[in-house]
UniProtKB/TrEMBL annotation:
MF term (GO), any: kinase activity
Domain of life assignment: Bacteria
Database matches in InterPro entries: Aminoglycoside_PTrfase (IPR002575), Kinase-like_dom_sf (IPR011009), Mak_N_cap (IPR040999)
Protein name per Swiss-Prot or TrEMBL: Maltokinase
Length: 454
């Protein structure tokens, strides 16, 4: 076991390390500051007391506070794990060398360095008994997942796991005080005995000097030979084959996930129709404000939301909310030998953290997946225009056979259309910012959702 100590960063590394990082951070894929004017200030330093010397190098995790107008809420804390070694022996993830009063030090990105993986695993109590005297065996075939996005994930086939496939260590990049949804939700699902999520194996949580807690890393069982759901759907679409059978399986898995979450975690308050629709109106207004192409649709969006509000107000019984996935799309589903596994319960990255994890209507996840079939049809260039609706119908039929929304059929359909519209508007903003050449995909979906009620 490795003891973890947390101190203010001012008592931590030499200031030259912070200077090196200030230049390095903005080039990282997971850096949330974009090209905006951002100030980076080390906040906390986490050290690992490597009692038995098994880690083999100095591991230091810095939590860096970023402030600037382009960041969600104006402020974000990012985790920067580092490995410090002798300057004459730089290793994986080398960032640069700094001169300190005790000599030159080589600084490495810890997320790419086995010594850091071992320190994180040992501090979660993983691998300390199983790999006697040979900590390096735990990470021998370890590798960082290519194409990292919001966080950095490391494949670790030697990590002990119930199914024997190894572990996936997710090093969180943006961190925040409080319970992390990607810990709480998969842990609850795993403990409920549900196998539609990669088995939760552990997490590293630190206590800050002001008594808050922050999750830094999560370990789940590796899903062997799994295919990314979006790539799989695009492949199937491009071959002109039907996705309906796989979509039906996915519909059942998503329905089971909602049923288990409803039992395993506290229910939310019943939907307040006006507040719920006000939230949709706010998001729509923000999308219209950011994407000029939406301006012409504003009146129709308002009419659709007015209609939903009337229906929800008139609903004969209160509509329940619960923990949901919050950002469900095909890229959050892996298809492996034992079927679909659902990943990444962090919610929509562009939403404020408090909103991302609030209990919500499960139909929001259903809407997210329906939108994803539209993306797969477009990106995979499905030759048959019915490809998307066939997949969507199969998904919905299987979902509804397994779990009921509790809404009257007309209200259920109106709520689903409004949530598909909400997701498509979110995607218009997402694509405008990230992939402008794809913006036509969600714009077409906005038009279809609006056409569904006119
Ligand atoms: N347990 C796992 N087994 C196998 N692959 C996984 C597992 N967890 C995640 N992945 C792969 O890693 C990718 C990133 O994981 P994800 O949790 O979505 O991270 P991020 O928060 O960085 O987006 C996924 O798209 C999937 O391909
Ligand atoms: O996976 P993230 O949590 O980072 O989600 C964000 O990025 C997604 C893209 O990677 C984006 O998803 C959109 O594009 C997908 C195809 O690349 C498509 O399958 C989804 O349906 C569509 O929403 C997601 O919206 C965004 O939050």
């Amino acid at each position: 076991m490795v003891d973890v100590a947390v101190v203010p960063a001012a008592e931590g590394p030499d200031p030259s390390v912070a200077d090196l990082l200030a230049a390095w951070l903005p080039g990282r894929r997971w850096y949330p500051g974009g090209t905006g004017d951002v100030r980076a200030e080390p906040w906390l330093a986490v050290t690992f007391d490597d009692d038995g010397g098994t880690v083999g190098a100095d591991v230091l995790v810095l939590l860096v506070r970023l402030t600037g107008p382009t960041l969600p809420g104006g402020e974000v804390v990012v985790q920067v794990p580092l490995v410090l070694t002798d300057a004459d022996a730089p290793g994986p993830g080398y960032i640069g060398t700094v001169a300190t009063p005790s000599g030159d030090v080589a600084v490495h990105d810890g997320a790419a360095h086995p010594a850091c993986w071992i320190a994180l695993l040992h501090s979660m109590g993983i691998g300390t008994d199983d790999v006697e005297g040979d900590a390096a065996a735990l990470t021998r075939r370890g590798r960082v997942l290519a194409g990292e996005q919001s966080n950095t994930s490391v494949i670790l086939p030697e990590v002990p796991s119930p199914g024997g496939s190894g572990g996936m260590l997710k090093i969180l990049r943006t961190v925040a005080p409080g319970q992390h949804p990607d810990v709480v939700v998969p842990q609850a699902l795993t403990e409920a005995g549900w196998d539609g999520v990669p088995r939760f194996l552990g997490a590293l949580k630190i206590a800050t000097p002001d008594d808050a807690t922050v999750h830094l890393a999560i370990l789940a069982e590796l899903v062997p030979d799994a295919e990314d759901g979006f790539e799989l759907a695009c492949d199937v679409a491009s071959r002109g084959e039907s996705f309906a059978p796989l979509a039906a399986d996915l519909g059942r898995v998503v329905a089971e996930m909602h049923a288990v979450l409803r039992r395993a975690l506290p229910e939310g308050p019943p939907v307040d129709p006006r507040a719920f629709v006000a939230g949709l109106r706010r998001r729509a207004a923000a999308a219209v404000g950011e994407a000029p192409a939406l301006a012409a649709r504003e009146a129709e969006i308002t009419a659709l939301l007015d209609d939903l509000e009337r229906r929800l107000v008139a609903a004969p019984s209160p509509v329940a909310t619960q923990t949901i996935h919050g950002d469900l799309h095909l890229g959050q589903a892996l298809h492996g030998a034992t079927g679909w596994k659902i990943l990444d319960f962090e919610g929509e990255p562009q939403r404020p953290v408090a909103e991302r994890t609030a209990p919500d209507l499960p139909l929001r996840d259903v809407a997210g997946m329906l939108r994803s079939f539209g993306y797969a049809a477009a990106v995979g260039r499905a030759p048959d225009p019915a490809w998307e609706t066939e997949a969507a119908d199969a998904f919905l039929a299987a979902y509804r056979e397994t779990v009921a929304s509790g809404l009257e059929p007309d209200t259920d359909a109106a709520a689903l259309t409004a949530l598909v519209l909400d997701k498509a508007l979110y995607e218009v903003v997402y694509e405008t910012r990230q992939r402008p050449t794809w913006v036509g995909i969600p714009l077409a979906a906005v038009d279809r959702a609006l056409g569904a009620v006119s």
